UniProtKB/TrEMBL annotation:
It is found in: Secreted. Its EC number is 1.11.1.7. This is Peroxidase. Its main location: secreted. GO terms for biological process: hydrogen peroxide catabolic process; response to oxidative stress. The keyword Nucleotide-binding does not apply. The gene is LOC102701223.
Length: 335
């Protein structure tokens, strides 16, 4: 039964991969693609680094096999990069005031995977593949390890930005945000309601710090449950996040299938089992709540997530002669 289920998951993923590719190409023509994806292309490195996809996939899959938590971390890394100054790998830079040092990014991980991929690509194709593209490809391949088939295509051709400032991270959506604030945050990045609901589905894997959850459980020294939380689920959260909680304490964003990329996140929301206030907020708007209900269907979720990930990957990209191709992802080129 387990083998059959695994086959069904892989078949569904492969089928929706084909559907998503078709939807992105049909009726658009080359002019339409250039207009919607300025400077980006599928197989951008076909001549300059033909093995880029296989190198990224092999390194990523090997690391995910050793650490099943990496898909959630790499997805979050990609999201936090794109929402601050666009998808330019600025989150990777190391300096005293970089994006890494900002509160929302202190729990972001997966940097070591990007470093390992970059090292291999620099051996194969020195100075060719950007760190921004590596972040996008690694996020896709980390999720695809479960299915052994890619759920979405990644356009490439991004270049790396030279600036990383913690003060710029105010554009990241807060885990405490209500629906209208979330919708505006996404709109500011060129994303719509469908993208908000679909991309929130990334919370079907990964973890959140207890500090992101405890305001829904306690008020001062007293228990004060958010009415949008199921009481039994709230007790489970309280057992993992006592008051006060150690700073290192975390909870699974999806308590049902925490390591499986599936549509259970949306079922959890309908059962008042969204871990974050920003998750529960999706049920407080009629249109969003209808989308939540639709995306409990895993096939619909994979399709919607695929389209929105590609759209997110285009946010304020640097292409052509803008930016640079870093030799090391943690530092700008000195010359």
């Amino acid at each position: 039964m387990e083998r059959e289920l695994g086959w069904r998951w892989r078949a569904a993923a492969a089928w929706w991969f084909a559907v998503a590719v078709g939807c992105s190409l049909v009726g658009s023509g080359s002019a339409g693609l250039l207009e919607s994806n300025p400077g980006l292309a599928y197989n951008f490195y076909q001549k300059s680094c033909p093995n880029v996809d296989s190198i990224v996939r092999s390194v990523t899959w090997a690391q995910v096999a050793a650490n099943p938590a990496l898909p959630g971390r790499l997805l979050r890394l990609h999201f936090h990069d794109c929402f601050v100054q666009g998808c330019d790998a600025s989150i990777l830079l190391d300096n005293a005031q970089s994006e890494k040092t900002a509160g929302p990014n202190l729990s972001v991980g997966g940097y070591e995977v990007i470093d390992a991929i970059k090292a291999q690509l620099e051996q194969a194709c020195p100075g060719v593949v950007s760190c921004a593209d590596i972040v996008a490809l690694a996020a896709r391949d980390a999720v695809s390890y479960q299915f052994k088939a890619s759920l979405w295509q990644v356009e490439t051709g991004r270049r790396d930005g030279p600036v990383s400032l913690a003060t710029n991270t105010g554009t990241l959506p807060s885990p405490f945000a209500g629906f209208n604030v979330l919708l505006q945050s996404f709109a500011n990045r060129g994303l719509n309601l469908t993208d908000l609901v679909a991309l929130s589905g990334a919370h079907t894997i990964g973890k959140a710090s207890c500090s992101s959850v405890t305001p829904r459980l306690y008020q001062g020294n007293a228990t004060s449950l958010d009415p949008l939380l199921d009481s039994a689920y709230a007790r489970r959260l309280m057992s993992s996040c006592p008051n006060p909680s150690p700073s290192s304490s975390t909870i699974d964003l999806d308590a049902t299938t925490p390591l499986k990329f599936d549509s259970s996140y949306y079922t959890n929301l309908q059962n008042k089992q969204g871990a974050l206030a920003s998750d529960a907020a999706l049920t407080q708007n009629a249109a969003a709540a209808q989308m939540v209900a639709d995306l409990t269907n895993p096939i619909k979720f994979y399709a919607a997530f695929s389209m929105s990930m590609k759209k997110m990957g285009r946010i304020d990209v640097l292409t052509g002669s803008k930016g640079q191709i870093r030799k090391q992802c943690r530092a700008v080129n000195t010359s």
